[in-house]
Structures are given as C-alpha cells and as structure tokens.
C-alpha cells in the first residue's frame, strides 16, 4: 500500500469543535465562540454526535454521559502523540499542570483549559528545532488514514499537510530501528565479603541527605540514622552455610526507611563489587526507590549503570509484537490509532516498562488493551536470539544491566519466582536482599509456591505449546515454531517434539467453559473439570449468586476419582516428552561447545529452562495433586475445589493447592541460600501489646522462624505526633449490613471534611453500591468522587488524580489501601466500611487452625487496619481523621493504632461534627 497516496482524512474541523466537560450532575459545553452552555446529558450526547467535541478521556466521558463511545478530539490522544513517554493526570486540571497552563477551577474553567491545551500542544509540535524519537509525520499520516480526527491539525502544525515525502512513510513507521542495541560483556566475578560498619552506613546516609534533588527535601532525623546502623548488620559475612544474617526492622512512618536501608546497601555493593536486590510488593514503591537514588547518582549515565529496575517479562513491551502491530496498521485501520500512539511511546521510552515509569496508565484505556499491554510477552512466546530485535530487546537489556548494577529494584513476585525456579533469568541467585513492604512476604510467597489445576491454567499451557489453533491470532507462536530450527538436525528431538504436540491435546482448547456448561466435555482434562464443578455445586449453596464457590475434596462425587486417574495418566504422556526435549536441548550445550556461539547457547539454555519451568514442573505439580486426591492431603498443604466467578458468571474451575505456611519454601529456596536479608516495613509486628508475641508474628510472616540463626530485631518509632495530629473514631449506630446507612455515613463524613476523603471497602459490591448512592450528592457540593472498579482507570492513575485534586474523594479496596501515598490536604479523612477480617474460605480455615485461630485472625485484621491508618499521615504537618463504620469492632484490635491515640466509640452525628471541627482551618 502506498503511504503517500491521498488518504481519507477526517472532515471535521477542529476550529468548530466545542469543549465538553462533565461532572456527576452537570455537563458544560464551551463553543468555539466562547459561549458556555449547561446541558442535560442526553442533549450533550446529541450535540457531541453532531459535532465531535474536545474532551479529556473520550471513553470516560461517554461512560459518564451514559452512552456508547462517540467521535471526539481527545486531548489525551494528542498529549500522548506530542509528548510520548510523558505523564499527566488525565483530567483538564492535570493537562493544565503538565503543560504549565493556568489551573482551572470549576467545569467552565475546565472547558477553557481544553482549548488552551490544544494550542499549547500543537505549538510544541511545530516548534523549531524540536527533537523527535520517531517520525511524527509518518504516524500522523497513517493514523489519519484510519480516521484520527487530530491528523489534519497535527500535519499542519508539522508543516506537512500533504504527508511524508514519497518513500519516507514506511521507513518512518519502523521505530524499532532507532532503538539502541545492547552490548554484551564478560561475566561478573563473585562479590567479596567485606562487612558494612554502622558508621559507614551513617556517613553514606549523611551524603544522601545532603544531596540536592529537584522537588525533594530531606532533613536529618536521628531515628533514620539509628535505623541505617541497625540494618547494616545484614551485610556482614554469614557465619556458616545456609545461615544468612537476617534483620527484621520495623520503621514507623516518617522514619525514612528507604534512604535508611539504601545507605548500607550501596556501601556494601561498592566495597564488594556485588549487587543488592531491593524487593517491594507494589510497583509504585519500586519507582519511588528509583527516584530516591537520584541523591546518590545525580548523573543519568552513572545511575543507568548503577541502578536497574527489574520486573517480570510480562511487564515489558515486546518489539516483535510491536513490529507486527505496526505492519498491520494499513490492514487493520480500526487498530491504527492505538498502535500509532503506542509506537510513538516505544520510540521515546527509557526502558519499555508497561507498568510504571514513563508509561501513562491511562493509555491502556485510550489505545486499547490489545495495542498496549497486549504487546508484552505475557504468554512466554519469546524466541530469544532468533528474534530480529534480540539485540534491542528491553527485557534483555534489563537482565544484562542488572548483572552489573550495584542496586536492582525488583518486586516480590519476580524475586519469589526466581527463587522457586533456581534463578529464572539469572545464572545464580543474588546473595543480598532487602524486602521492603515486608509484611507482604507471606502473601507473595503464597502466590509463588501454589499449584492451580484449572481450566484457565491448562488452556494457557496448551496455547503455549500449540500456539494459535484458529485464524486471526498470528502472534500466538507455538513451541514448534519457536524452536524448530534448534531441533531440525536432531531426529530424536523432533520425535520428542511430535510427542509433546500430541500430548498437549489432552489439555482444553478454546471454548472449554461453554462445553462444560453444556455437559459436553472433550478430553480427559475437561472431563475432570466437569467433575470438579459438580463437586463444588454438590457441596455448596448460592450457585445463582455473584460470588466464587469452594468445596473440600473429601467425599468426592461419583466419577471424580476416575476422571482424576484418567487425567493423571494422560499428563504422563505430556510430561515425559517435555522432560526429554528439555534434556535433549540442554545436552547440546555440552556436546556442541565448539559449534555454538554465545547467542545460540543463551537461546538453547533459555528454551531448556522454559520447557522445564513452564512445562515439566507445572505438569508434575498437577500430577502430584491428582495422585493425592483419593487420600489425605500432605500435612504441609491444603487442597480444595473452586468455581471462580465474576459478577455471577463462572470464569474458571479446578483443583487448588497451597502451602499452609508458604514461608517454608520461601526460606528453603531464597532466604536460606542468601548471605544477608533485611525485611522491613512500618507494620512488621503485631499489636497485641505483648512484645514477644508481636515479634513472633513478624518472624512467622516472613519466614525468619524457619532459619537456623535468630533474626536481629530493630524497631524505630515514628517521629510523628499521632495523638495530636489524628483522631480515630468507631461509629456505633450505623448498621454495616444496611448499605443505605453506610452510604449516608460516607456522604456526610466526606462533606464534613470538605473532600480529601479516602473510602476503603472490604468488598467490591459494597463499594459500587455506595458510589451509586453518593456520587451525585457529593458532586452537587463541589466534591468530585472517583472509584476503583467504577472509573475506567488503573489504581495508580486514580491515586494521581486524587492527589492532585484537594477536594476530591476516592473509593477503593485493598489495592488502594496498600498503594496510597498522598501527603498534605488531599488526604485528610479515611473511612473504612467494616473491620477487615480475613475472608472465611477453606485456605483461611486451614491457616487459622495451624496458626492459632483467633490470634491469627486478629493479627490479619490489625495488620490491615495498621496499613489503612498509615495512609493518613505521610509527613510531620499532616492532620487527619480515621473512621470505622463497624459497631462490632472489638477493643482488642485497638493495638493497630499508634500508642497514645485514643479510639473513641461515637454515633455518626458526633463523628461528623468531630471531623468537621478537627479539620477546620487545616
């Protein structure tokens, strides 16, 4: 297709486009002539369909107006095109702040801000001497062919209204050719074992605090220096094999634990020529830690060598997937706009990270999941050095840089998986770790060391092995396509490959869920899943309800055990050739040393590891679960059947196995082989009041109790004046099962605070019900309300909006509870709908029995309350109120709150009055 031929560019004029903004109750339209109109939603929709308006986030606008998506000049599309790899809060106010425009106040100002943003962005695009990482003319032209409304204005601003020069269009789309290739180097020698003395840690901390970093102010705190001294003990040489130095360090909010542990960690890395891995539970904290290291490494080039942020493969853009998407733009015009925006980002991004960094989370909703997150290698289809983009691959760059870095900032999920697989991407495991958000180590280990024999998991393995089995899914590359060149000259390997292809067909294909619903299973896996579903339905009530269902494996229904035996036998026919093929590939590394170059060796090793990890280990775990189905489950595990549901619709079914104590395999696979480990959090210990019991809870939750050497304990209190800066109230006269009363309480409390409220919920259904009841009344008083699971934005973006709008309120569940970091007036009230008890499921029942029944349940509830309260005060001058709407809150949970903070039981009227009075003037 000739890219220089005249396209059918959009015929709507930008000059005539009105600006359209909407709250929960009001819709305002600002015409090009400056006339302001307030319209009912139906009238606004009619006007928008007649003349595409300027909007900020078109999909969200359509949802707010209660209509299907309509053609619009979306400012977020223009922002993503003009300033790729730049973030803005996806609101008119956020656009104004990002573009250094006057900050709007009210819907009328919001509409005016959109007009100003258009002029500013088009002006930037046409600015003389502007540097571009990709060809904007080629992309605007191709996106215009697909109907992108901005294309004529963009091309005009670029001085190219007729598009690219002849022959330049196709070349301009090949953004991957501009990405710098990585260069390999020799392997790193092992690190030395010099200790870090407490004084060295303190001196490094002083240097970091004294550094000048734009936008960041730090002041010396005695508690922070004490903390740095304490955690330095983890960097001493270990006294014996499998005996790491472990420090459990609880640092209250405001101590500054991030710089506190980075000080000794960076000293150890420099003294010993080694790497310290910092692990977090949330991606947001990964990027905060990365930003703090600007203090030590202000020069970008130096920091790029010293610090690497690592995530799993599924978090990075795959350039091969991007190339296929870009090449398909002329043939799939309905995807071209999203692909174009994504390609512009790919050319400008620092590291290709799709889950943070310079990737705007709202781009997923603007461009579509398939054109953004769907371009990652989420299905393990990488062909490594056989890929044309291998030398430019973001993942391979990250892996190689990490091997030479001083500090690697990873997340618990990646670290756990590497430990479970004996290194994963790395030839050896790190020896020094810091686990920040250490209270989540238990949960992360629980996910990493579990086994799920379910419809989704088995179908995913089939797809990984067989690839696309239907037309229109060319990016699903099967195992044979990925390694056929590696086995082409090996007859035995080819026979094993054929056996794997045949064995994979015992796993369910597309449409398995529909076949189960029709009682028409195909193959042994679907027959087993159907029997598993019958087991669940026979043992539970509420099949017509919205929630997932569970059942014990005891007393199996007729046919279940026979189906399990048949499936186990069928899986043998898959496991054996998988293991044989992995061994055959690995043998080439020894038998063909002289013939294989470095890239070939790496590719063969990676494929052999992948076959073992994704194939052999997975199938063998399933077989072990099936074999023990007729007998008692091994004492360290708990097994159960479940039907997973979303909004009352069955989405998965199968057999589940978890460790009762997942820190046992964690300690064996990671903590034991390590030389030193810091586990730190603001909420590490329990709050019973019994010091020994509180610390024992911390050790049990992070695996330290399974190690031979006792952990060193350090506890540094928060410097914040909680008794005077906060208030905590338990409301006694609101029935938590009456959502009308609950919603009324949220509304009046949010209004008493004048906004700045965070509403936390223990169930999504409760959140949605409250949102529906209060969004319009709050909007009428000038308080915008946002909500996780309601607004089409990721949690990080919602928090950014909440942080930027001082009078906004936000509703969320546990992801918001753990991820909010909002200092200042934007967060001054937290309302929790009820005590956050653990979900009473089969896994919880087993753990409750193992860990002490009520003591275990109380510990979890206190931990969650601690985490929630910890969101309220993030700096010394913050002030806030915490309200729990649960009259059944037991006083033994009051230990979740800081010492000296009075917990008052009050009626809702008094709570509202006290909130307004306490926050007045702040």
Verbal overview:
Helix 3 runs parallel beside helix 5 (107-125), helix 9 packs across helix 10 (222-231) and helix 22 runs antiparallel to helix 25 (560-591). The longest helix is centred in the middle third of the chain and has 32 residues, at 560-591. The protein is of the alpha/beta class.
Residue-averaged pLDDT, rounded? 91
Low-confidence stretches: 1-6
Q: Calculate the terminal CA-CA distance, rounded to whole Å.
A: 63 Å
Which shape, going by the Cα principal axes? globular
Number of strands: 23
Helix content: 40-55%
Structural class: alpha/beta
Largest sheet: 7 strands, parallel
What fraction of residues sit in β-strands? Answer: 5-15%
How are the strands of the biggest sheet laid out side by side? 8-9-7-10-15-6-16
- Radius of gyration (Å): 29 Å
Number of discrete helical segments: 36
Task: Provide a concise account of the structure shown.
This protein has 36 helices and 23 strands.
Explain the layout of strands and helices:
Blueprint: E1 19-22, E2 27-30, E3 36-39, H1 41-50, E4 54-55, H2 58-65, E5 73-74, H3 75-82, H4 92-98, H5 107-125, H6 136-145, H7 151-157, H8 168-173, H9 198-210, H10 222-231, E6 245-251, H11 257-272, E7 276-280, H12 283-292, H13 300-306, E8 307-309, H14 319-327, H15 333-348, H16 363-367, H17 394-404, E9 407-411, H18 412-420, E10 432-435, H19 441-448, E11 451-454, H20 455-466, H21 479-487, H22 491-503, H23 512-517, H24 523-539, E12 549-551, H25 560-591, H26 598-627, E13 637-646, E14 649-659, H27 663-671, E15 676-681, H28 691-702, E16 712-716, H29 722-725, E17 726-731, H30 739-753, E18 757-760, H31 764-780, E19 785-787, H32 795-804, E20 809-812, H33 814-819, E21 829-832, H34 842-851, H35 854-870, E22 880-884, E23 903-906, H36 908-919
Parallel strand pairs: 4-5, 6-15, 6-16, 7-9, 7-10, 8-9, 10-15, 17-22, 17-23, 18-20, 18-21, 19-20, 21-22
Antiparallel strand pairs: 1-2, 2-3, 11-14, 12-13, 13-14
Helix pairs in contact: 3-5, 4-5, 6-7, 6-15, 9-10, 9-11, 10-11, 18-19, 22-25, 24-25, 25-26, 30-31, 30-36
């Amino acid at each position: 297709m000739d890219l220089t031929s005249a396209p059918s560019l959009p015929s709507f004029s930008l000059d005539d486009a009105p600006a359209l903004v909407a709250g929960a109750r009001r819709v305002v339209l600002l015409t090009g002539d400056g006339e302001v109109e307030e319209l009912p939603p139906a009238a606004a929709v009619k006007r928008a369909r007649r003349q595409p308006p300027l909007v900020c986030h078109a999909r969200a606008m359509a949802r707010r107006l209660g209509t299907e998506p309509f053609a619009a000049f979306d400012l977020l599309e223009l922002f993503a095109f003009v300033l790729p790899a730049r973030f803005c809060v996806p609101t008119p106010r956020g656009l104004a702040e990002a573009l250094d425009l006057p900050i709007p106040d009210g819907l009328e100002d919001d509409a005016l801000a959109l007009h100003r943003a258009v002029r500013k962005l088009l002006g930037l695009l046409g600015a003389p001497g502007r540097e571009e990482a990709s060809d904007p003319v080629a992309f605007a032209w191709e996106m215009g062919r697909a109907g992108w409304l901005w294309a004529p204005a963009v091309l005009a601003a670029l001085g190219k209204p007729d598009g690219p020069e002849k022959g330049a269009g196709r070349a301009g789309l090949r953004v991957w050719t501009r990405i710098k290739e990585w260069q390999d180097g020799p392997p790193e020698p092992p690190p030395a074992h010099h200790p870090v003395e407490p004084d060295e840690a303190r001196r490094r901390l002083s240097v970091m605090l004294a550094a000048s970093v734009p936008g960041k102010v730090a002041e010396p705190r005695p508690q922070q220096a004490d903390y740095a001294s304490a955690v330095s003990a983890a960097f001493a040489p270990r006294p014996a094999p499998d005996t790491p130095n472990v420090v459990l360090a609880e640092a209250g909010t405001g101590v500054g634990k991030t710089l506190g542990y980075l000080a000794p960690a960076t000293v150890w890395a420099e003294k010993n020529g080694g790497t310290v891995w910092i692990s977090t539970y949330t991606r947001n904290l990964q990027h905060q830690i990365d930003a703090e290291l600007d203090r030590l490494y202000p020069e970008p080039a130096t920091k790029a060598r010293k610090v690497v942020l690592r995530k799993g493969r599924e978090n990075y853009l795959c350039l091969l997937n991007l190339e296929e998407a870009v090449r398909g733009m002329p043939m799939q015009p309905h995807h071209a706009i999203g692909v174009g925006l994504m390609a512009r980002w790919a050319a400008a991004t620092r590291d290709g990270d799709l889950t943070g960094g310079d990737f705007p989370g709202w781009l997923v909703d603007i461009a579509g999941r398939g054109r953004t997150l769907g371009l990652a290698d989420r299905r393990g289809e990488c062909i490594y050095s056989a890929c044309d983009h291998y030398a430019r691959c973001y993942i391979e760059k990250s892996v190689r840089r990490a091997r030479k870095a001083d500090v690697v900032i990873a997340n618990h999920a990646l670290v756990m998986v590497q430990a479970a697989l004996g290194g994963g991407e790395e030839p050896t495991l790190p020896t020094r770790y810091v686990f920040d958000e250490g209270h989540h180590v238990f949960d992360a280990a629980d996910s990493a060391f579990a086994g799920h024999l379910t419809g989704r998991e088995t179908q995913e393995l089939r797809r990984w092995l067989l690839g696309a089995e239907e037309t229109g899914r060319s990016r699903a590359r099967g195992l044979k396509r990925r390694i056929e060149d590696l086995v082409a000259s090996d007859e035995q390997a080819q026979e094993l490959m054929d056996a794997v292809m045949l064995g994979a067909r015992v796993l369910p294909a597309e449409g398995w869920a529909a076949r189960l619903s029709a009682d028409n299973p195909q193959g042994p896996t679907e027959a087993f899943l159907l029997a598993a579903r019958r087991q669940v339905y026979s043992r539970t009530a509420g099949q017509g309800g919205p929630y997932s269902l569970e059942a014990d494996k005891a007393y199996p229904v007729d046919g279940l055990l026979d189906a399990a035996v048949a499936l186990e036998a069928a899986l043998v026919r898959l496991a054996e050739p998988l293991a044989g093929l992995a061994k055959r590939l690995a043998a080439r590394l020894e038998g063909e040393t002289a013939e294989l170059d470095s890239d070939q060796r790496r590719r063969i090793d990676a494929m052999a590891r992948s076959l073992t990890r994704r194939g052999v280990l997975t199938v063998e775990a399933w077989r072990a679960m099936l074999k023990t189905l007729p007998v008692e489950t091994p004492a360290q595990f708990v097994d159960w059947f479940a039907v997973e549901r979303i909004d009352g619709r069955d989405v998965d079914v199968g057999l589940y196995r978890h460790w009762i104590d997942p820190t046992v395999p964690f300690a064996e696979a990671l903590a034991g082989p390590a030389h030193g480990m810091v586990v730190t959090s603001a909420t590490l210990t329990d709050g019973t009041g019994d010091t020994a019991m509180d610390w024992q809870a911390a050790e049990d939750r992070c695996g330290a109790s399974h190690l031979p050497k006792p952990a060193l304990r350090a506890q540094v209190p928060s410097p914040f004046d909680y008794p005077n800066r906060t208030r905590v109230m338990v409301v006694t006269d609101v029935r938590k099962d009456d959502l009308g009363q609950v919603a009324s309480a949220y509304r009046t409390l949010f209004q008493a605070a004048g906004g700045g409220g965070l509403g936390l919920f223990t169930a999504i259904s409760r959140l949605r019900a409250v949102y529906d009841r209060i969004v319009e009344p709050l909007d009428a008083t000038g308080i915008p309300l946002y909500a996780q699971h309601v607004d089409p934005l990721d949690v990080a973006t919602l928090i950014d909006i909440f942080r930027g709008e001082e009078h906004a309120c936000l509703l969320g569940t546990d992801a918001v509870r753990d991820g909010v970091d909002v200092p200042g007036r934007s967060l001054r009230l937290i309302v929790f709908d009820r005590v956050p008890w653990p979900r009473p499921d089969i896994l919880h029942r087993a753990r409750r029995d193992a860990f002490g029944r009520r003591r275990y349940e109380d510990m979890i509830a206190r931990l969650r309350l601690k985490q929630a309260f910890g969101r309220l005060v993030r700096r010394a001058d913050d002030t806030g109120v915490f309200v729990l709407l649960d009259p059944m809150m037991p006083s033994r949970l009051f230990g979740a709150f800081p010492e000296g903070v009075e917990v008052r039981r009050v009626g809702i009227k008094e709570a509202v009055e006290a909130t307004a009075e306490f926050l007045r003037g702040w």
